[in-house]
Known about the structure:
Blueprint: E1 5-10, H1 24-34, E2 38-42, H2 51-56, H3 58-69, E3 74-80, H4 81-85, H5 94-97, H6 109-129, E4 134-137, H7 155-179, E5 182-186, H8 196-205, E6 212-216, H9 218-223, H10 228-235, E7 239-244, E8 246-249, E9 269-272, H11 281-290, E10 296-299, H12 308-322, H13 341-347
Parallel strand pairs: 1-2, 1-10, 2-3, 3-4, 4-5, 5-6, 6-7, 7-10
Antiparallel strand pairs: 8-9
Helix pairs in contact: 6-7, 7-8, 10-11
Amino acid sequence: MKTLKGPSLFLSQFIGEAAPFNTLETLAAWAAGLGYKAVQIPTHLPHIFNLDEAAASRTYCDEVRGKLADVGLVVSELSTHLQGQLVAVHPAYEQAFAGFAPDALRHDRTGRQQWAVEQLKKAAKASQYLGLNAHATFSGALAWPYFYPWPPRNAALFDEAFATLAERWIPILNSFDEAGVDVCYELHPGEDLHDGTTFERFLTLTGNHPRCNILFDPSHMVLQQMDYLGFIDYWHARIRAFHVKDAEFNPSAQSGVYGGYQPWVDRPGRFRSLGDGQVDFKGIFSKLAQYDYAGWATLEWECCLKNGETGAREGAKFITDHIITVADHAFDDFALRSSERTAIRQMLGLEERS
């Protein structure tokens, strides 16, 4: 059995203009001071991590590793959530997501999609240079506007959407395979891959690609009212990354899983800081220990109430306290008797064979 690694911190929610949140070095020192052992690094901000340079230069990657090592940290994963989103975008979201790509591509739909694919391929090479084995991303979405069946569900529409999604991702998955890195899709409402059923459909269309895997985040499953512990039982072999994020679901007479277009603080489903929501983390960490999950436990802090720096400070201890150091032998091994065949047959009351 393996003991998972942690705590790691996803940096995206903490990057800002003021120190210590404006450079990788100062963010790393701040995170290390809170007790984190690794950071998950977003790749859409060159002043934090220059993906173009990282994909072209092993030296740059070695320098990044060295800066983190100076404060006792490593990289858990790189993230391309924003770029992954652009691999597939329905026209309804064109304007909303246009800002995720360079300004020169703001009005170039095809150019943005091609840029996103190249970004993912660069992330594969950068991950290889950094010595990583997992990568965090989003799938993007073509079918999401049709997630609720009105007008009635059109099977051909979903067949085409998922076939196209797989077609776009297979070359990316192949690049990650060449780099020896797993692509871990965060299953997230708003993405076509948002639950086990959609992931399974996509996985089948990729030919069960070995690099097609899951970033497990229970908060999104709470908001969808899924059995997230059963999900681990079903999908543990494909879970290669883990966002430790809390959530709660408190339905009312006025609103339920769709949220009523309300701000986060008023929705029945809300993200919370670790320990403030309803997620059964003892159950999750137990399941992951049971199934030999050997990756990182990474805090993704999002909360509609609590200050982020407080959430990060509390989160490091929360994760550390929940990591199960797995046993190297069974607790009742002391009572085990001989497994020699003669002794076994005697225990069963069987005569010795001639």
